[in-house]
């Protein structure tokens, strides 16, 4: 396969990052792996992508490698966009992504896949996106989609803006400038965040959802860890991140229907369960069109579905076998591991069945 100089450099950088991340994963104590598949599998596979999956991937890798001593799995949490690019170029065997492959990406070729075959999207990680904040004296915060959109677009610039005060009449909001922190790298978390705002408050968030943050201003940070660090270490800050990384930061309740709803794994799973699949995809490509406009207060629509992107058929048969086994573990017992380690919502029985059927077809 021919690579441009850029794609070669990108692949080299990705593999370097993977090597570093592998050390952390292999050195960490394995979670309970008694249910991980035991086999004679052998080989090394590399993945790259969503930082939101970082904690879950560490747990999955540790559990799978404990039960499969001759397998090495490396994962670099470089961001969804970087992961998809590396996978498309053939630099990694799988990608993690907080957004499914686009129609444009699916129309192209994939470096690790047999010519004429396509990659598939497997939903394997469901997690709320938390609107995190750090404002002195403020422990509770209610926000609706239009106000969140105004803050991150730069139209609402102070914490005592009338729009925020109206939603929080009892809060002591300072007359201080808001520092809104967004992802500076291409991010599926950004795309999910933007999709929610565009669907619920289109008059304010008037840009189409994309991995790249669409508006000027604010403060950009690299990866989930970068956003959380900037919000934590800043003053009068707000950001968005996978809820598993919110830590001790304040987290806003978002308006769903006439109620303000705090995130839970169950509420995130509920909205995914009742959302349709994206139309026009192959039988094994399971991309979900999340219902962002639900008014059901038992649902939390600011949620991300993160995907494992793999080949339907691998050129490297041995690598394909390891990917298939690893994907099976993730979609099965690995769901409980991720729930314990990262606070994610396990797949419903219906969705898990669809994912398992798709994995069984991998060659």
Supply database-style keywords.
363 residues; alpha/beta; D-Maltodextrin-Binding Protein, domain 2; 2 domains; 9-stranded mixed sheet; 3-stranded mixed sheet; 12 strands; 37% helix; elongated; disordered N terminus
Overview of this protein structure:
The chain is 37% helix and 18% strand. The strands form two sheets. Strands 1, 2, 3, 4, 6, 7, 8, 9 and 12 form a nine-stranded mixed sheet that branches. The protein has a three-stranded mixed sheet with strand order 5-10-11. It has helices at 5-27, 54-67, 80-89, 103-106, 145-153, 162-167, 188-200, 223-233, 265-273, 317-331, 334-342, 349-360; strands at residues 43-49, 71-76, 94-97, 119-134, 142-143, 179-183, 219-221, 237-242, 250-251, 253-256, 259-261, 303-311. The model is unreliable at 1-34 (pLDDT under 50). The protein has 363 residues and is of the alpha/beta class. The radius of gyration is 20 Å and the shape is elongated. Helix 2 (54-67) crosses helix 11 and helix 10 runs antiparallel to helix 12 (349-360). The chain has two domains: 5-125 and 308-360, D-Maltodextrin-Binding Protein, domain 2; 128-270, Periplasmic binding protein-like II (D-Maltodextrin-Binding Protein, domain 2, 3-Layer(aba) Sandwich). The protein has twelve helices and twelve strands.
